[in-house]
Amino acid sequence: MFQVLIVDDEPIARESLRYLIDWEDYGFSVKAGAEDGEQALAMLREGFYSLVLTDIRMPKMNGLELIERMREITDASVIILSGYDDFEYARQGIKLGVKDYLLKPVDEEDLIAVLLRVHRELTDRELLHRRQQAGDSAFRERVLRRLAHGQLNRGEYAEQLRLAEFPAEREAFRCLSIEMDSTCDAALSDRDFELKRYAIRNILDELCLATGGFVFEESEDRYGIIYAGDARVLGDADSVRVRAETIAGAVRLYAKETVTIGIGGAESALERIADSYRAAEAAADGKFLAGTGAILAAPPSRTEDDTARTRLREMEEEALLAMKDRRREAALQALERLWDGFAKAELPADEAKRIVLEILVQLFRLVKDAGANHARLFDYKLGDYEYVMRARTLDDLFAFTEKRCSAVLELLQRTNEIRPKKVYDEVREIVREQYASPISLKSVAQQIYMNPNYLGKLFKAHADMSFNEYVLKVRMEKAKELLLHTDKKVYEIALEVGFGELDWFYKRFKAYTGVSASEFKLSSQQST
User: Fold this and answer.
1) Residue 396 has pLDDT above 90, yes or no
2) Which helix H or strand E contains 511, and what residues bound it?
3) Which pTM value belongs to this model?
4) Cα–Cα separations (whole angstroms), residue 520 to 113, 485, 488, 491, 500
5) Which of 127, 203, 274, 409 is the most exposed place for a label (fewest CB within 10 A)?
């Protein structure tokens, strides 16, 4: 959300502009108003603003003086508010680098049009700035990711965490796992998906600044947070849930996206942070049962010493291990032994159903980790949770679980038979055929029945570039070919190679070739 400062000596004008539109619908928030240039300059020194809307004719310091002076302290975008008699002043403002001018009284549609354009420019600028900072932040991300996965040894803790500015001396630690729910939406363009990721990361960073949280990117659609702080606060499940609800609400409001959040347990030692994060990931994987937008807490560790229940836990682990090893007969036999154990232990129905739900979550993670497309087997819309909870007999539960395990084993077998080189060639062929459409890694993964994250890693391992980089390369090479060998207009070529927005094509083409599309076409004509 970009912060806005409105500068006008007329209070009514400031207030009317504030309430002319719903600013947040367009990615902006009116943070403050100033009655003249001097007051505005003082506000700009004290706070951060992305956009300044200023009148020209004001007492003490007019708008043009303000623009000249503010360039010493901020690179905020500027829009001039001008009356008809101020047109020459507005022209001077354009020379000073203002983004646009609006005639007073400001028209709602004119304001929206300018804001949409400025929002795109500000977003692109922040993306560039983030890339420039990546060198500094990449190290911190790696350290946090290794910490969450238990990959930092004791000898590395002190130095690595000090360099990453992580407060290792805190009393307690607790992890969240946050997953975007739109990751499998094939209708979402790559650019829209990237903008959503960018917005969500900004929201997480901002909220964590105030709560002692440290954010890292786990994958293109999942983030991790490690909280470090007071044991009393982080040990309070309700308090941590409120933090998760605040994150979900902010993402829903500002990024127009829902997220599923898994909450791990509180730990008192650095070495146990990995346990908390592992529990948070397992909780988030329960999305296929609970549905999107859920906040899921890891169940507390069970400490029963009841022999029968301990044996049931061992039987469950035996069945899952056989599934993981693709040993079909052993897995189904282990399931039968588990159900016999249910009957002999006279296990209450709610406990048996809880174990079945745990098995489903573990099967989901098994399929996901194998890189198979889990959408057809695991989707909350299939009603698995409701079916399990409505089951009236152990036989019903067994038939359902056995059927699901068999389907998972068949899917894993098909996945094992897929040769990586064959998949890589198939993806390249799909891109060459569909580059003119809004193609994405998610849509391609759906076509070949694979997990998008796994497919992305497989493709990069073979191509030495990401899927999105390869799509851009195909589109840019085709655009160059059309510029060289046809008389088509640039906008026609942009549409033909899959760019719905001409300005986006211009930017990507220049970044790819070093020259604009027009310059490229002209230079090729001159050389022939």
Assistant:
1) no
2) helix 502-513
3) 0.48
4) 31, 12, 14, 14, 21
5) 127
